[in-house]
Write a structure and sequence with these properties.
single chain, mainly alpha
Length: 209
């Protein structure tokens, strides 16, 4: 990688990092998964979020994002799909009855399969049209048209890894037993707050249509 591409990569990596650590649906879902279902579910959700980034990388590189940006009804459809998923997820959390038993090493809390946790993270990120717009902005403003496709793929893999690593760190922190106990002591309220936050994100998407 030449010096120009190193500078390009550093700029992209810095902007991407600040976007990743800013609160959004990915953070809300990882937080809830880690506290409600434990560390394993939180880590699998984080891996799903990282994998979800690959969807945005692929269609950005083949030009689908630019096409959707130039075709308003396609972009609106993507926003509706993303909002619908967040609304469905938010309603599920609002309907949750919370945890009625204490969390202990012998009773780790409500179980969730690794596959379900992974797909929840994957769909949360892959259906997010704001991620689509982010990648369009990244690859049209920070990445030179002359940058080889192989280098752009490396950028994409890097961003997948950073997303997964960040949310795995979030999961490790919030799945600590003492932290889980404090949140789950008010689990019904916690679920209601997370559900309301997701509905708020969905509302913002719909208002942007």
């Amino acid at each position: 990688m030449n010096l120009f591409n190193q500078s390009e990569f550093l700029a992209l990596a810095l902007v991407h990092f600040f976007i990743v650590v800013s609160p959004g649906p990915d953070f809300a879902v990882t937080l809830r998964q880690s506290i409600y279902h434990g560390r394993k579910a939180g880590l699998m959700t984080a891996l799903g979020i990282g994998a979800g980034i690959s969807v945005h990388v692929v269609y950005t590189l083949i030009g689908v994002t630019a096409l959707m940006q130039a075709t308003p009804w396609l972009m609106d459809t993507a926003k509706y799909i993303g909002a619908a998923y967040l609304i469905w997820l938010g309603i599920q959390f609002l309907r949750s009855k919370g945890v009625t038993t204490a969390i202990t090493p012998d009773n780790p809390g409500p179980a969730q399969t690794a596959g379900k946790a992974f797909w929840m993270g994957f769909l949360t990120n892959a259906t997010n049209p704001k991620a689509m717009l982010f990648f369009l902005a990244i690859f049209t403003t920070l990445v030179s048209p002359s940058t080889p496709v192989s280098v752009k793929l490396f950028y994409g893999v890097w961003m997948c890894g950073v997303n997964a690593a960040w949310f795995m760190a979030v999961s490790v922190l919030f799945s600590h037993q003492r932290i889980r106990e404090r949140f789950l002591a008010h689990s019904r309220l916690f679920d209601n707050v997370i559900g309301a936050v997701l509905l708020l994100f969905a509302g913002r998407l719909l208002l942007a249509v």
